[in-house]
């Protein structure tokens, strides 16, 4: 991790709402984060916490309507992506910011060969000739560990297995040598043994290529293994943010603490009873004026109802939390694993 | 695999040599050209009031196995005894009378609840079909079930779309409980739910088990949750059970190379511990169940593969009390329980 280096991506106060028939949904509420060169930022949260929508919104991938960006700045390569034209954004996507989606089957086009789909960005964004693009595509497939790469360019997506398809997706995202890679739950649809293969591959590629990665997931285990820093999202907000070891060792937000203790492990001591976070996630139908977690929080008090806590630095460097409550300084008892 | 997980106890469910093959047909006359061997010669017991966890990756046949056990399919071969009654081959009309005893909770609460029926309709349907009670008596039972699974009684006339995923799964569980079953197959009941909601549903299932003396076959790909809920665990690979053992043994000392790889692949939610995990990364993908390899099904990916593995399908043997493994790495051939796996 390179502290102090100029961030490649600097997001401030991003707000996005969805206008639906039933009213507005405040999906992203003042999200700010920075991504430094070469680091891997993990984004954790449950469905509806706004983790995917934040990333889609900042590079203009959400259809409008219903989505509407209500403010914020997204600085990337010296310009504000919020003000960029559609044409400019299209150039940025694919060429400078690569995307990997969760489900490799629905994000690959079934009627084109895999080779065609990898070559498309190369020819469009990089201006390569057919022959150049073909050899680069073969190189990429080889890089992500697909055997017999040159021949497999002629195959269609259905001829690949799930893990292989996700490798193809990664190859496509890497095609134009992006500075930033946004990976949205890239291993969620895969089996554990295949997930382990893909995680190994990503670790290896990071060393080789050195791009910055945003890794969205709900799996704390995956985050623990690959992230440098972690951002925990709840109800469309960042509730906690810290270097990975710090977050797991000293979680501050009651949601993070509860989340860490609800996840059972396959190793070590087995917990006799699972900790439960009672209740349901918030609906986000109103702009946030109170803490989104208050209804499920065991430490909630009057102030949580009146005032949405702002992120404030705590403890170790780079650790901040959006919560009015301070854990007792003693051992973080409820956060102990297992 | 005559597994003696509970010596001296009579199993509630006894499965022997279960096979579920789906035909592959081709051409105008739909001639059969092969078969997908989704479940291929599987034997296990489930004892009263225990939870047998069944784990494996997608396509290994664990869900098919669960459905076959409840005779949602007409099985290809094998015997299934539930509470002493042979149900493997009896025709569906006669099976209907036995249905109240065995129920199922499905994976996707969105897809398994009829969107045009109210909660009362959904939970009450098994009662209409099997109990033939009056209105009042039925409604009382519906309220009782809603209380048991933690649903608000006032929601009795609402429709599934008005509930969240976790609450919908509670409706599915209430429906499964309606007829006081002894045995419930839970097919990935938490896979579609968020982490914080998963724990709620798992705790509910455990509580209901205690209260009503239920027996579960808990099918899941989530090894950490299975470790939490199951008393014994069976690991499936490509249509076969490769290892079956009491929970502590399986997680502390897995014997089959596949179980070892599977457990090592699970990420650890703790960065310090994560770096110490020794990972066995399996090469390649699972072969097609329509065309399994000769010999051991795992021989194409096994890090410890031997000559014999490519020739002979390994028999199942007991390597420790209650721990059965189908692998050539273990035991002398004469100690095998060959008669159980010869089929």
Quick take:
In chain A, strand 4 and strand 5 form a beta hairpin. Chain A is an alpha/beta fold and 338 residues long.
Q: Which helices and strands occur, and which strands form pairs?
A:
The complex is a heterodimer of chains A (338) and B (343).
Chain A lengths: L8 E12 L2 E13 L4 E5 L6 H8 L8 E10 L2 E2 L5 H10 L1 E4 L3 H4 L6 H13 L3 H14 L5 H4 L9 H13 L5 E5 L7 H18 L2 E6 L2 H7 L2 E6 L2 E7 H6 L4 H9 L39 H5 L5 E2 L6 E2 L17
Parallel strand pairs in A: 3-8, 3-9, 6-7, 7-8
Antiparallel strand pairs in A: 1-2, 1-4, 4-5, 9-10, 10-12, 11-12
Helix pairs in contact in A: 4-5, 5-7
Chain B lengths: L12 E14 L4 E16 L4 E5 L6 H8 L7 E6 L2 E2 L5 H5 L5 E4 L13 H12 L4 H15 L15 H13 L5 E5 L7 H18 L2 E6 L2 H7 L2 E6 L2 E7 H6 L4 H9 L5 H4 L41 E5 L2 E4 L11 H4 L2
Parallel strand pairs in B: 3-8, 3-9, 6-7, 7-8
Antiparallel strand pairs in B: 1-2, 1-4, 4-5, 9-10, 10-12, 11-12
Account of the protein in words:
The complex is a heterodimer of chains A (338) and B (343). Chain A is built from twelve helices and twelve strands. Chain A has helices at residues 51-58, 86-95, 104-107, 114-126, 130-143, 149-152, 162-174, 192-209, 220-226, 244-249, 254-262, 302-306, and strands at 9-20, 23-35, 40-44, 67-76, 79-80, 97-100, 180-184, 212-217, 229-234, 237-243, 312-313, 320-321. An eight-stranded mixed beta sheet of chain A has the order 6-7-8-3-9-10-12-11, with helices on both faces. A four-stranded antiparallel beta sheet of chain A has the order 2-1-4-5. In chain A, helix 4 crosses helix 5 (130-143) and helix 5 crosses helix 7. Chain A is globular. Mean pLDDT of chain A is 86; it is low at 330-338. The longest helix of chain B has 18 residues, at 195-212. In chain B, a hairpin with a 2-residue loop joins strand 4 (77-82) and strand 5. Chain B is globular and about 70 Å long. Chain B is α/β, with parallel strands linked by helices. The termini of chain B are close together. Chain B has helices at residues 62-69, 92-96, 119-130, 135-149, 165-177, 195-212, 223-229, 247-252, 257-265, 271-274, 338-341, and strands at residues 13-26, 31-46, 51-55, 77-82, 85-86, 102-105, 183-187, 215-220, 232-237, 240-246, 316-320, 323-326. In chain B, the strands form two sheets. In chain B, strands 6-7-8-3-9-10-12-11 form an eight-stranded mixed beta sheet, sandwiched between helices. Chains A and B meet through helix 7, helix 8, helix 9, helix 10 and helix 11 of A and helix 6, helix 7, helix 9 and helix 10 of B.
């Amino acid at each position: 991790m390179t502290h102090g280096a100029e961030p490649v991506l600097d997001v401030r106060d991003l707000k996005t709402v969805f206008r639906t028939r039933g009213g507005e949904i405040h999906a992203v509420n003042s999200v700010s984060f920075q991504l430094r060169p070469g680091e891997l930022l993990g984004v954790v949260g449950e469905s509806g916490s706004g983790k995917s929508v934040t990333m889609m919104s900042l590079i203009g991938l959400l259809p409008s309507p219903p989505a509407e960006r209500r403010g914020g700045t997204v600085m990337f390569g010296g310009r504000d992506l919020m003000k960029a034209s559609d044409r400019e954004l299209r150039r940025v996507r694919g060429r400078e910011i690569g995307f990997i989606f969760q489900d490799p089957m629905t994000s690959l086009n079934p009627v084109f060969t895999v080779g065609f789909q990898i070559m498309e960005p190369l020819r469009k964004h990089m201006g390569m000739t057919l022959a150049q693009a073909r050899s680069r595509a073969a190189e990429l497939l080889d890089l992500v560990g697909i055997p017999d790469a040159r021949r497999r360019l002629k195959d269609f997506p259905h001829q690949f297995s799930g893990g292989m398809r996700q490798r193809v997706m990664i190859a496509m995202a890497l095609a134009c040598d992006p500075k930033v890679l946004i990976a949205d739950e890239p291993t969620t649809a895969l089996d554990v043994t295949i997930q382990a293969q893909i995680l190994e591959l990503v670790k290896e590629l990071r060393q080789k290529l050195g791009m910055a990665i945003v890794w969205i997931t709900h799996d704390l285990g995956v985050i623990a293994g690959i992230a440098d820093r972690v951002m925990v999202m709840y109800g469309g907000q960042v509730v906690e943010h810290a270097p990975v070891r710090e977050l797991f060792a000293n979680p501050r937000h009651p949601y993070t603490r509860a989340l860490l203790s609800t996840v059972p492990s396959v190793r070590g001591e087995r917990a006799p009873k699972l900790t439960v976070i009672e209740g349901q996630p918030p609906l986000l139908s109103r702009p946030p004026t109170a803490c989104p977690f208050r209804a499920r929080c065991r430490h909630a008090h009057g102030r949580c109802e009146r005032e949405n806590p702002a992120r404030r630095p705590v403890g170790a460097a780079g650790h901040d939390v959006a919560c009015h409550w301070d854990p007792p300084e003693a051992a973080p008892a409820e956060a102990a694993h297992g | 695999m005559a597994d003696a997980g509970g010596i001296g106890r009579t199993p509630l469910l006894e499965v022997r040599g279960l096979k579920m093959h789906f035909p592959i047909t081709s051409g105008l006359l739909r001639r059969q050209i092969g078969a997908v061997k989704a479940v291929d010669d599987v034997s296990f017991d489930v004892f009263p009031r225990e939870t047998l966890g069944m784990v494996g990756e997608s396509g290994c046949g664990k869900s098919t196995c669960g459905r076959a056990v409840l005779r949602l399919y007409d099985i290809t071969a094998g015997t299934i005894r539930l509470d002493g009654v042979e149900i493997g081959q009896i025709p569906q009309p006669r099976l209907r009378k036995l249905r109240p005893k065995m129920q199922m909770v499905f994976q996707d609460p969105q897809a398994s609840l009829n969107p045009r029926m109210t909660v009362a309709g959904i939970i009450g349907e098994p009662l209409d079909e099997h109990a033939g009670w009056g209105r009042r008596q039925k409604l009382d039972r519906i309220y009782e079930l809603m209380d048991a699974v933690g649903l608000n009684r006032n929601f009795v006339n609402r429709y599934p779309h008005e509930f969240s995923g976790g609450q919908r799964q509670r409706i599915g569980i209430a429906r499964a409980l309606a007829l006081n079953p002894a045995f419930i197959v839970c097919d990935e009941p938490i896979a579609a739910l968020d982490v914080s909601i998963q724990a709620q549903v798992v705790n509910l299932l455990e509580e209901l088990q205690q209260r009503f003396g239920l027996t579960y076959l808990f099918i899941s790909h989530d090894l950490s949750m299975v470790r939490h809920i199951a008393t014994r665990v069976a690991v499936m690979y490509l249509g076969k059970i490769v290892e079956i053992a009491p929970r502590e043994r399986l997680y502390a000392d897995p014997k089959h190379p596949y179980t070892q790889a599977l457990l090592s692949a699970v990420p650890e939610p703790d960065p310090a511990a994560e770096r110490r995990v020794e990972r066995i990364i399996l090469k390649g993908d699972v072969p097609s169940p329509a065309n399994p390899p000769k010999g051991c099904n795992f021989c194409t990916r096994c890090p410890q593969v031997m000559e014999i593995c490519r020739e002979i399908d390994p028999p199942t043997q007991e390597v420790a009390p209650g721990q059965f493994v189908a692998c050539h790495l273990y035991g002398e051939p004469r100690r095998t329980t060959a008669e159980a796996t010869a089929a």
